[in-house]
Write a structure and sequence with these properties.
Layout (H helix, E strand, L loop, with lengths): L12 H12 L4 H10 L2 E2 H7 L5 H13 L3 E6 L5 E6 L1 H4 L2 H14 L16 H5 L4
Antiparallel strand pairs: 1-3, 2-3
Length: 133
């Protein structure tokens, strides 16, 4: 993509797209966003549903997504405390992009070589067999 800056200092689309990509760049952000695009999740549910992510990394990625305004965090005053995460309206606007990616994967995913999972910690067998709550 070439820089698209006018001499009068207007928008540089290359830089703007870099900013957009940075919102979703991170080891786990796209996977988190995919999950939250499906429904609202509690922290523990996300942790179990995303194989290999550590509690520390999930917390860090959720905080970044929240500070960027892509997800919202709701804390319920209960014992024990319940915390839920959901996509904001701004992030929901990415829905067509996610649908296009899913459609692309359905068409071309089988032609992509399978790589061994090398991300995060190896899940133990009990974690791997448990699905999302």
């Amino acid at each position: 993509m070439e820089n698209q800056t006018n001499d009068d200092g207007q928008i540089n689309m290359h830089e703007e797209m870099r900013r957009a990509f940075s919102l979703l760049s991170g080891k786990w952000k796209l996977e988190i966003m995919w999950m939250l695009n499906q429904r609202i999740y509690r922290f523990g549910e996300l942790r179990k549903a995303i194989n290999g992510i550590t509690q520390h990394m999930l917390t860090a990625q959720l905080r970044e997504l929240e500070s960027d305004g892509l997800i919202s965090r709701t804390v319920f005053a209960e014992v024990p405390p319940r915390v839920e995460y959901e996509m904001t309206a701004k992030a929901r606007a990415l829905g067509p992009t996610m649908e296009a990616l899913a459609q692309w994967w359905n068409e071309y995913g089988k032609s992509v070589p399978v790589r061994p999972a090398s991300r995060g910690r190896k899940a133990n067998k009990t974690q791997a067999s448990e699905g999302p709550i």
